[in-house]
Amino acid sequence: MRAAKVLERVLITIPIMLGVAVMVFIFMRLTPGDPVDIMMGEMVGISDAEMEAMRREFNLDKPIHVQLWLFLTDVLRGDLGTSFVKRVPVAELILAHLPATIELAVGALFFGLAISIPIGILSAVKQYSILDRASMAGAFLGVSMPSFWLGLILILFFSVKLGVLPVQGRIDHDVGLQEVTGFYVLDSILTGNRAALVSALRHLVLPSVTLGATLAAIVARVLRSSLVEILRADYITLARAKGQVEFLVIMKHGVRNALIPTVTVVGLQVGALLGGNMVVETVFGWPGLGRLVVSAIFNRDFPLVQGAVMTYAFTYVIANLLVDVLYTYLNPKITL
Amino acid sequence: MSQPLLELRNLTTVFPTRRGLVRAVDGLDLTVREGEKLGIVGESGSGKSVTLLSILRLVPPPGRIVAGDVLFRGESLLAKSSSEMRRVRGRKIAMIFQDPMTTLNPVFRVGEQIRESLRIHGLVDGRGRARRRAEIERVIQVLNDVGIPYPEESLRRYPHEFSGGMQQRAIIAIALSCEPQLLLADEPTTALDVTIQAQILDLLERINRERGMGIILVTHNLGVVAEFCDTIAIMYAGQIMEKGATEEVTTEPLHPYTRGLLRCLPRIYGKREKIRPIPGLVPDLATLPPGCPFAPRCDVVRPECREDRRIPLKEVEPGRWVRCLLY
Predict the structure, then answer these.
(1) Per-residue pLDDT for A320 more than 70?
(2) CATH 1.10.3720.10 matches A90-330
């Protein structure tokens, strides 16, 4: 039953991705700037004929509806096209950059939850205490700080001043990591490369903190406010009246219920972690999808942008699906 | 009747508020004997629920007990450490609540919530799977006792799959699971339909009769108490205004407040009488008038009622107490 519903939801992603792709297709072509012009802009002595040939190669000489048709029929065959600039299949480019982005998102998620869950719980339990006020002020700061600024400050302090963490990149190149999956932390564990593991983790710290700060702030606030409410509920009094120890009253009866609204927020944020990290990837020179798509947009590399946006849409929908499935476990009133 | 099961002596619970200290429970003296059914009646805000929470020492902060004592079988509950107190809660004294819809934890199965009590107090011996089986057997038995049909299936249900009446039965099952000696019932029928109310009262009656469990029933419904309780205490503004055997109090009320409450009861049989509500509102506990708190609403008030002194609770006949200057 549940599996069938999940499958149904996965299949629904296909029209969603196509819809997104069509929109991106149209908007990219509405943006001023011709890809061939941009590509050739810096070169001297390119003849009009050569430019024309290039347009023909990319099908840019055809009317827009024909281009769209070609694009959609290719996509349905599983072909995302070839990058104008890099002359490499888009799917290949995306697959090469996606692990870095996912790894960073997981790092940020891990950091964000590790910080926000204890803080949210403690703030709710010790409502209006100094700890509560301080952490909620911190959370406010966390939401309002732009990530490029936070990233630069962290680099300045930890990398430049203290010199304890690397400035940028995913790994030191002298550790000789053999790539298996493209997830460096996983790869270094799989290949038993201790030096690579340390290096990969050290590189992950600052970008994860920067990217996860917003998530941490939002989750801490949501968890706190829902837990504050729940701790006043009758079933909490009942749990105490049963003779349950306070720790379990809070963790079992309180937090378990407070997780329901929290998971919703985390789910939405996971989408943002995957799709909203262009700034962080740029600041930390992180070779992920975000940076790839930014340069693709500047170059009017239509196929690459379309492919990347479809990937974002896919991850977003899947993240939401995971949340919905998790929800049915957390909240017995809800079925898929 | 034998030794007191529970004794409240001058119990005083206060809540600091912006407008001053609110004495939600103000020098309460009450006794419950083994197997006795005591009813505490009063309007909303008269301190009934806080009294029950004070007995279990579960008054929500910033409220706190500032004076008096709670003696359970002669032992002070206020003197107990918090871990000793936890062994009393649920095991010796259990509590049921007003709104069954919000009293069961929505995310756990009903059976699990009953089993939790058994586990907390380690009431079922054994290890691992054998213990689990024994616990579930006990859960089924308790569900049976409170009249929940198909207990084997019901224990796997979530609270929202139950009706209000069934939820209240499940909460009573939680309370009964550890076979406490005293049950605190905080308006257990208020949120239910009248027919369900009667069923729940029957159930409580049967539990009292079969197990000899003492019950304190808190309600604003004098009719419920008149039907159910052996003794009755009328509470107003945190104080007891009158207490005594139910029959005496309901047929021959002494305190003007009790008389007022009785006049508010609609009658189905006998002479048609107009319902006369008590004029005025429950007083604001932060700004109580001097003297008798009921004076502003009393129809036989005298000047000395408003003098600034506490009116004593007087025993006018053996077992019959009233806090009024008329006596």
Answers:
(1) yes
(2) yes
